[in-house]
């Protein structure tokens, strides 16, 4: 199957999953917040939320292993794929042990003198922390299986597991309303149990489905490959850990200055941003293996073209939904949640803007990683991340409002984007002028025009529901018009048409086969 068609099919599968899971997840969040209350929800975010943080770390490490898997597939080397899996299992077992020990040491100091948690909830918070440790261990050792699934572009399995996870989370949220025991403790325990079960399901499936998933670790062990993967994973782990520590440090800094209610606002902002990014993340999940395999086939031109187009489409996919959401954030939050914690509106808006900036260069990290040389880029990533927390801490010491930390995060995102552009130019031969004109300028112009048009209903419509519908309608209509007129070049329009045609053809085939049978 051609790369464009593979991306189309896999993206279609993942979008079908998204259509089912997004609304389930948002409704589940409403139920959980109502059951726990803002204080306990904030506690879960600052303590148990480290699960989400380390899930991100797991995903980052998975992308490192996936790079080797996809590259070997591009080369057509089956034995090397077996060796990569064996080395990856050993490597991530060692990483899991080190990370768990590190977390336990850090946890002691967090609870002893840093976190601001009410005394009557401290014991529950500590138990939540231990739940997190268990989750982290299993998340890390499952990384090789995630890498195999993504390298094989098995998005159907990803979709099925995602739907199962969303339904189970909704079941847990509903169950909380009937729990007589401590609801926060039950919620944390059930969420970790669900994560571990899903990890085991992935492992069982991969061991039965894929030839490279073999447990003759000694037989397939390759010392040179272990050294190469350890070096790559170490630098990837450095940048991922820097990001992870920094972003979780945001929760701790906010907690120490403003308490758990602000953490609840932060958790809601993360939830909304995560759901808005689902479309772009699904597309990237299908596109990233194509970028790496293109490099494995020594097709640098196709790799850069896929990366450039991926950045643009990823931005369009989030901006299409993000613009009306940013404009109507107060109405959306008041309709979605019963009680909206203070600072939630500004947190959500700034968090979504940050996500939009990230999408402009999001595939360049994959492109640089595909070359196998990420040492210098990872170093500069970490260097930039280091400054966020101390700068924000000093700002709060001088009386800054909580949302200042999100302003700092946006500035950090711009710096990271500049780093990705530079290293894609230096290592991959990116035409920077072409990128700035074809991607950045086009995307910024479209965003400004759509925002100006979508804000006009505020001038003459007072009814909130009618105004919301007008904002969504005008934003969606003019975004599509400007995207076709300004955003996409002729070859990108043809590619988009081909992708949509492939998806529609497969839908028609499924319907025809269903009714003919």
**Oligomerization state of this entry?**
single chain
What is the CA-based Rg, rounded? 23 Å
Total of helices: 20
General form: globular
Distance between the termini: 26 Å
Q: What's the number of domains?
A: 1
Largest sheet data: none
Structural class: mainly alpha
Reading the helices and strands in chain order gives HHHHHHHHHHHHHHHHHHHH
Calculate the mean pLDDT score and round it. Answer: 78
Secondary structure: number of strands: 0
What fraction strand?
under 5%
Helix content: over 70%
Unreliable runs? none
Pfam families: MatE (PF01554)
Transmembrane segments: 12-36, 42-63, 84-111, 127-148, 155-178, 184-205, 313-333, 353-372, 379-398, 404-423, 435-459, 465-488
Keywords: Cell membrane, Membrane, Transmembrane, Transmembrane helix
Subcellular location: Cell membrane
Give structural notes.
The protein is an all-alpha fold and 517 residues long. It has one domain. 86% of the residues lie in helices and 0% in strands. The protein has helices spanning 3-48, 50-75, 78-114, 122-141, 143-151, 155-176, 183-209, 223-258, 260-276, 278-296, 300-327, 329-336, 344-359, 364-370, 375-397, 404-428, 432-454, 457-460, 464-487, 490-516.
What is the secondary structure topology, with strand pairs?
Elements lengths: L2 H46 L1 H26 L2 H37 L7 H20 L1 H9 L3 H22 L6 H27 L13 H36 L1 H17 L1 H19 L3 H28 L1 H8 L7 H16 L4 H7 L4 H23 L6 H25 L3 H23 L2 H4 L3 H24 L2 H27 L1
Helix pairs in contact: 1-4, 1-6, 1-9, 1-10, 1-20, 2-3, 2-4, 2-5, 2-8, 2-10, 3-4, 3-5, 3-8, 4-7, 6-7, 8-9, 8-15, 9-13, 10-11, 10-14, 11-13, 11-17, 11-19, 13-16, 14-16, 15-16, 17-19
Protein name: Na+-driven multidrug efflux pump
Keywords: Cell membrane, Membrane, Transmembrane, Transmembrane helix
Subcellular location: Cell membrane
């Amino acid at each position: 199957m051609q790369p464009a068609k593979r991306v189309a099919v896999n993206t279609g599968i993942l979008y079908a999953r998204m259509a089912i899971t997004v609304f389930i997840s948002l409704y589940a969040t409403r139920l959980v917040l109502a059951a726990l209350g803002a204080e306990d929800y904030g506690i879960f975010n600052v303590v148990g939320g480290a699960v989400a943080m380390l899930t991100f770390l797991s995903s980052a490490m998975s992308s490192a292993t996936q790079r080797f898997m996809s590259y070997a597939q591009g080369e057509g080397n089956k034995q090397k794929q077996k060796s990569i899996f064996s080395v990856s299992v050993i490597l991530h077992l060692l990483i899991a042990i080190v990370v768990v020990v590190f977390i336990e040491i850090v946890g002691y100091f967090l609870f002893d003198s840093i976190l601001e948690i009410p005394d009557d909830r401290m014991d529950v918070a500590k138990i939540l922390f231990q739940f997190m440790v268990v989750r982290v261990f299993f998340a890390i050792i499952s990384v090789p299986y995630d890498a195999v699934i993504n390298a094989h572009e098995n998005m159907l399995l990803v979709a099925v597991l995602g739907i199962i996870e969303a339904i189970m989370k909704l079941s847990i949220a509903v169950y909380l309303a009937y729990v007589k025991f401590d609801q926060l403790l039950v919620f944390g325990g059930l969420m970790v149990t669900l994560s571990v079960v899903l990890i085991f399901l992935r492992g069982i499936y991969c061991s039965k489905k894929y030839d490279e998933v073999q447990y003759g670790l000694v037989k397939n062990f390759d010392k040179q490959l272990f050294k190469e993967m350890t070096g790559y994973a170490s630098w990837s782990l450095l940048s991922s850990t820097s990001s992870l520590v920094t972003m979780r440090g945001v929760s701790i800094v906010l907690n120490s200055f403003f308490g758990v209610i602000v953490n609840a606002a932060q958790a809601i902002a993360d939830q909304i941003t995560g759901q808005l990014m689902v479309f772009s993340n699904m597309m990237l999940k299908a596109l990233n293996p194509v970028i790496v395999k293109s490099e494995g086939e020594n097709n640098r031109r196709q790799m850069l073209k896929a990366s450039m187009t991926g950045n643009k489409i990823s931005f369009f996919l989030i901006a299409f939904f993000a613009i009306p959401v940013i404009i109507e954030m107060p109405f959306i939050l008041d309709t979605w949640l019963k009680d909206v914690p203070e600072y939630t509106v500004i947190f959500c808006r700034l968090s979504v803007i940050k996500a939009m900036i990230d999408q402009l260069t999001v595939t360049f990290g994959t492109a640089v990683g595909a070359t196998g040389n990420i040492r210098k880029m990872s170093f500069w990533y970490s260097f930039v991340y280091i400054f966020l927390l101390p700068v924000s801490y000093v700002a709060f010491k001088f009386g800054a409002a909580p949302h200042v930390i999100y302003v700092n995060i946006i500035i950090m995102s711009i710096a990271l984007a500049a780093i990705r552009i530079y290293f894609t130019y230096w290592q991959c031969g990116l035409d920077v002028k072409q990128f700035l004109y074809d991607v950045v300028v086009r995307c910024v112009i479209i965003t400004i025009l759509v925002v100006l048009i979508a804000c006009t209903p505020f001038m003459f419509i007072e009814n909130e529901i009618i105004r919301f519908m007008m904002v969504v309608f005008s934003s969606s209509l003019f975004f599509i018009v400007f995207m076709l007129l300004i955003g996409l070049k002729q070859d990108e329009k043809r590619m988009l048409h081909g992708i949509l045609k492939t998806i529609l053809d497969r839908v028609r085939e499924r319907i025809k086969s269903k009714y003919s049978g």
